[in-house]
User: What shape does this take?
Amino acid sequence: VAALDRQALLSAFGPRARLDEPLSRHTSFRIGGPADAWVEARDRDEIRIVQEIAAMAGLPIFVLGGGTNLLVSDRGVRAIVLHLGRSFAQMEWRQNGDGQHVRAGAALPFKKLVTESIYRDLTGLEFAEGIPGSVGGGLLMNAGAFGGEISDVVVFIEGVDSGARMRTLARGELQFSYRRFDVEPGFIVTGMELLLRPGDPAAIIAKRDAAKRGREKHQPLGYPNAGSIFKNPAGHFAGRLIDAVGLKGHRHGGAMVSSQHANFIVNLGGATAADVRSLMEEATQRVLETYGVHLEPEIRLVGDWSAG
Ligand SMILES: Cc1cc2nc3c(=O)[nH]c(=O)nc-3n(C[C@H](O)[C@H](O)[C@H](O)COP(=O)(O)OP(=O)(O)OC[C@H]3O[C@@H](n4cnc5c(N)ncnc54)[C@H](O)[C@@H]3O)c2cc1C
Assistant: This one.
């Protein structure tokens, strides 16, 4: 396997390619060691160039959206990190018999899509008020809250597969479950079509405001974090279990189990991925010992976690 052709990356992407880029700059946790390279692609041809360079170097591609659901290892990631640029942040609306269809680029901030849909008196995305990150990341995580999830409104998705082919996948071909979307390895989502329905404006606003209040009440604002750390196990709330084993406010280095919501870990300043990981391990172990319930991470652990 050849080494990463650094020169090829720099000459193809200029300042949109960075070598040994610390991912702490790109994650909401403000944690994460360096990626071999970080590249912003403007269009599909540029995605193909990244795929070629990565294949020649024998490196995987890791797509990073808003970086709001990630814990990147302190050692970083042996990959080319691909970020989709602004031309993938389009939003196009079209009236159709059954409602409004929106074509959303994967890099579109989820927040913009939610705001625009509410402005248009459309129902279907009120639950997502306050979910940070990109629409692409939201799809990959099957992001949800307050009883809704993005898969409820997906019509089809489009993207580039590992063989650099453009593909469109219809809803029926997509496998979603709780905070999970199973897509073939190496598939880079570039956009999707969603279907939203006209609704009663007052009811839409009320739903959105309820989501907003729920968030303000429970979520720790002010410190970098990555949202919920664990999925809620069937029949339980992860936050309540972690609280019940006495870990609220518990610290490891610069990381702390939030004193507002025990399913959040906050970076008080200078936290390492190892700090967060050890809090996660402690929570998992204590909850398992005390309640016999296994906590499964919701955040994605990314990169090189080898010891030593
Ligand atoms: C304060 C806060 C509150 C949150 N609240 C919620 C909530 O209520 N509900 C919820 O579900 N989540 C919540 N989250 C978690 C997170 O915001 C969501 O999971 C979000 O949808 C992730 O989007 P992202 O663009 O940041 O994805 P990233 O974190 O960048 O990536 C997530 C995963 O998706 C993959 N990915 C991203 N884009 C693409 C693409 N275009 N093609 C292929 N793969 C891709 C990445 O490789 C990675 O594996 C919260 C996070 C924070 C910080």
